[in-house]
Amino acid sequence: MVDSQYYLPNDIGISALDCRVAFRLLSPKEQMYAHYLSRASWYGGLIVLIQTSPESANIYVLLQKIFRLQAPQQLEAAATAAGLSAEEYQAFLVYAAGLYANMGNYKSFGDTKFIPNLPKFKALVWESLAFKQSPGDMETLWGCCCEPLYSLEDKQKQLGLGEKGISAYFSGNCCLEDAEFAQKFLDSKVYYNCAVEGKSEVCCGKHEFEDSVFSVKRGDYAFLMEKVCQNLEKAKDYAANENQKRMLEEYIRSFTCGSVEAHKEGSRYWIKDKGPIVESYIGFIESYRDPFGSRGEFEGFVAVVNKAMSARFAQLVSSAEVLLPELPWPPAFEKDIFLKPDFTSLDVLTFAGSGIPAGINIPNYDDIRQTEGFKNVSLGNVLAVAYATQKDKLTFLEENDKDLYIKWKGPSFEVQVGLHELLGHGSGKLFVQDDKGKYNFDQTAVRNPETGELISSWYKGSETWDSKFSTIASSYEECRAECVGLYLCLNKQVLSIFGHEGEDAEEVVYVNWLNMVRAGLLGLEFYTPESKSWRQAHMQARFVILRVLLEAGEGLVGLRECTGADGRPDAVITLDRSKIYTVGKSAIQRFLCKLQVHKSTADVEGGRALYEGYSAVTTDGTHNFLRLRETVLLRKEARKMFVQANTYIKGDAVELVEYEGSAAGLIQSFVERFPDDAEEVEAQLTQPTLPTRACGSTDKNVLAV
């Protein structure tokens, strides 16, 4: 019997993202700008299919061909003819919706594979109108993906490196040692000096490095990047100001020539574009799904500012310089100048990629964030539907906590997201010695608060946070930002900014901390015992925080196993609210300082030992976390999926088309997303040529991108 974690349940939550009012308030020029940015994002988002797994693009094209000729309601007759029950047909629709929502057959949140929960997939394909019209093409497509569609061999159960999983960022024979060696080459002057200027024609070719030869090629995703650039070019005509035009020009240069420097330059103009009505960002942004933690997955979003909520975030930004000194590290470990960013609440029109977050702090270029600034966004219409919880589905809490949790989860999470993005990701200094030997700190005066000694390590030359901390970088940084949120939500000024005073403020604090420890328990779903690895950065971070607060003792957090009313294993987690400001605050204060010191000083060895120690899922000690993991899996609730609108140009106006919040609605939105060139795009997606990638071999001849 297949473990249920590899299926998407038929009753999975699917919600439509409502942006109708926000879009209609835009001027015709702003609607045109949003439309072309959306088109660019949707084309670019298809890249994620290629980045996720070898079979994802073929499955996508197979589904598109089926649904383009028969909408979900029309296909149901074919399903009946193929012998599918109503439940099996719903499972087929849910699988298809999941493939679209995750842009591949691995969950964007957790990196676990999901397979169809029906045995008659092939029979339905053969009964479809698409097969009857083009049997040869459809049979070929089916042959390309039928085996991996259902395969749950150990290596194919999750994304990972080498024997730990599947990765489209590396060849199958590439191990961690190969990835580290490739990164060493990419960080070296041999490669870096030509790459930093964006001269990709110089970078391409063969490079000798440490008795090995690296061959560098370019052109991945060229057919999609061309369409991205065509739409960005059209968006320029409707840009609101010079910063937006220059931003788009640099993005186009980056996507045309493969220049990281051009994307960084575009990001600089994006930061300068303060308070736009239509906000967007696009490119290879987050590195969560690269098992080595360095390569970015494509995403693009377009959203409209929610002015009322943005006013609260603006207040938080204005208070940042007062709040930052409250953080538990010495002043020398904080940025020299806090560059006040934009912080806005947005209603998402388009978010193309593998998933939709609740908030974002970008750009991810540390050198820009440290000296030039960044932006924060909170995605309001995502928050409105993503975290709504029904009491009967609320797990691992005592009954008297459930009503409080449901009432205050939304407001408390809003506070946590604001603090996490602005003062979490936006805080802390990296000590750097540049290529010319210049330090951005006084190496004769800055001392490690943990030891009292002068700091002895820092970032050198082209080293970055991601390249140094590699496999733990993403989760470690999410943990640091989450801890900042927990620590500063205790500040009454912060709570007042969000409109919470008196008893209500205390409820927000309690539910925020309760939600964090519960999330730490839920995080066990995303741990793989066989490879002893975590598959989701945020959930690993929350488990680490749970471990820290359990270790604090004194009854702050309770976690006990029990038997549920249904007779199956269960667990209950509790939080003593009277000890949050004492025991809890002290524990987070100590841990947060350690996290920052290791990060600031590029102390990989110390940081890894600390973080991996708390990340360990053990069976000894007070809690058997492996057994608790089984309970979590038994009672887990599938993550929601979102249905997004499409925009079309009709005459001189832009029309917004929305869809129902269901599997059928999600499917239809994708079928109608590429009305003019769907077959051309699909033909390119199914080309046998694979993108170049880092490859390992026994003689260390490496092909790196």
From TrEMBL:
Statement: the UniProt record of this protein carries the keyword Hydrolase: yes
Chief place where the protein resides: cytoplasm
Active site: 421
Cofactor binding comment, as recorded: Binds 1 zinc ion per subunit.
GO cellular component: cytoplasm
EC number: 3.4.14.4
GO molecular function: aminopeptidase activity; dipeptidyl-peptidase activity; metalloexopeptidase activity; zinc ion binding
The reaction(s) this protein catalyses: Release of an N-terminal dipeptide from a peptide comprising four or more residues, with broad specificity. Also acts on dipeptidyl 2-naphthylamides
InterPro entries: Dipeptidyl-peptase3, Peptidase_M49
Domain of life (superkingdom): Eukaryota
Cofactor(s) listed in the protein's UniProt record: Zn(2+)
UniProt-annotated location(s): Cytoplasm
Keywords: Acetylation, Aminopeptidase, Cytoplasm, Hydrolase, Metal-binding, Metalloprotease, Protease, Zinc
Coiled coil: none
Binding sites annotated in the UniProt record for Zn(2+): 420, 425, 478
Record-level GO BP terms: proteolysis
Family: Belongs to the peptidase M49 family.
PANTHER family in UniProt: DIPEPTIDYL PEPTIDASE 3 (PTHR23422:SF11), DIPEPTIDYL PEPTIDASE III-RELATED (PTHR23422)
Name assigned to this protein: Dipeptidyl peptidase 3
Organism: Cyprinus carpio (Common carp)
